[in-house]
From TrEMBL:
Highest taxon of source: Bacteria
Signal peptide stretch: none
Name under which the protein is recorded: HD domain-containing protein
CDD domains in the cross-refs: HDc
Gene3D superfamilies for the chain: Hypothetical protein af1432
Domain HD-GYP: residue ranges: 118-314
Length: 355
């Protein structure tokens, strides 16, 4: 038995061949899949990949399938993917809060799906979807997803392997799950916390580690992400007061991602910082609050995504759009002003005053 079309034929020009084990639900087949010698039609062009199809292709020994070149899931399917992920995060938190056994398998599958989407660089959609969710829903769940996504991108930038990325993403997504063990009155207290209340808050990383271990999640990267997300490179963090490389890279990555997304988010008591200001802050805290390695990887991964195309006002009174970002100098981008481009790296006298 032989699959009738193979990688390299003309269909590849308008499509992309993927091994069957890399097919994902929601992809669209770019051509019929038949098997010889009977020319039996297994699946048709335009069919949407689902579990039954993958099972059928495997059982027939099919190795590759042509997927539409823009093989992104269609918009509504992608929206469904993000909403389903959010729901799974919500379900997970609720189950833990109610002391029920959460469905870790479903949650892990959702994170793997997210990791796959990131690998395809289908980033713009995820950021837009998260921004929409943020407008509609509570802060915490979206913040968790953002930190998980950010950690995934940073770890990819640093060369983590796929399984490591998924485990770190799981931990980063769940970094604040220990807050479920902190009284609501303390979490939502509008004024300053007393020393005693702050001591209770500082327990949330340890509570999170205990919750996850009791749920059977014990991968070191995952637990480090939760345990160390409030540690600071200079040793001024909590709960352990570790400094420098005493903090694992997983902890360093989660810490910088957590701060980045916290600063850029609107909160009831303050407006979120613009990304440019936030990147500048992250850059200024290299080797202080954050490890250089993690901070540089965050800026390298995220600054082009956030800053390219952004409208900015310059200190000389002109305004334009960010054309290009050098991750080493995220606060000195090239800016298009009408027909000309000004590279702020070469113009120290000009600053971005608002974005
Ligand atoms: Fe936290």
């Amino acid at each position: 038995m032989r699959q009738q079309h193979q990688p390299g034929d003309e269909a590849e020009m308008a499509s992309r061949f993927l091994p069957v084990e890399r097919l994902q639900k929601g992809m669209t087949l770019a051509g019929d899949i038949r098997v010889s010698p009977s020319d039996l039609l297994l699946c048709s062009k335009g069919d949407i990949v689902n579990s039954a199809m993958i099972h059928k292709l495997r059982s027939w020994g099919i190795e590759y399938a042509a997927i539409e070149h823009s093989y992104d899931m269609r918009r509504e399917q992608r929206e469904h993917c993000v909403k389903a992920l959010r729901q799974k995060v919500y379900d997970l938190f609720t189950a833990v809060a109610l002391r029920r056994s959460p469905s870790m398998l479903a949650f892990t599958e959702a994170i793997e799906e997210m990791a796959f989407a990131i690998d395809r660089l289908d980033l713009e959609f995820f950021w837009q979807a998260l921004a929409q969710l943020k407008g509609k829903d509570g802060y915490t769940f979206v913040h968790c997803l953002e930190v998980g996504l950010g950690a995934l991108l940073i770890s990819k930038n640093l060369g983590f392997k796929r399984e490591q990325r998924v485990q770190l993403c799981l931990g980063a997504t769940l970094h604040d799950i220990g807050k479920l063990g902190v009284p609501q009155a303390i979490l939502t207290k509008p004024g300053a916390l007393t020393a005693e209340e702050f001591t209770i808050i500082k327990n949330h990383p340890a509570i999170g580690v205990t919750l996850l271990q009791s749920s059977g999640m014990s991968h070191p990267l995952l637990l480090h992400a939760v345990d160390e997300h409030h540690e600071r490179y200079d040793g001024a963090g909590y709960p352990h007061g570790r400094h420098g490389d005493q903090i694992t890279l997983a902890g360093q990555i989660t810490a910088v991602a957590d701060v980045f997304y916290a600063l850029t988010s609107d909160r009831p008591y303050r407006k979120g910082w613009c990304p440019l200001r936030t990147f500048e802050y992250i850059h200024s805290q290299r080797g202080v609050q954050f490890s250089r390695e993690a901070a540089d990887a965050l800026i390298d991964s995220l600054s082009p995504l956030y800053l390219t195309g952004m409208q900015v006002l310059l200190s000389d009174g002109s305004s334009g759009t960010v054309e290009e970002v050098d991750p080493r100098f995220p606060h000195r981008p090239s800016v298009r002003l009408g027909n000309r481009i000004v590279d702020l790296r070469d113009c120290p006298e000009i600053a971005v005053i608002s974005a």
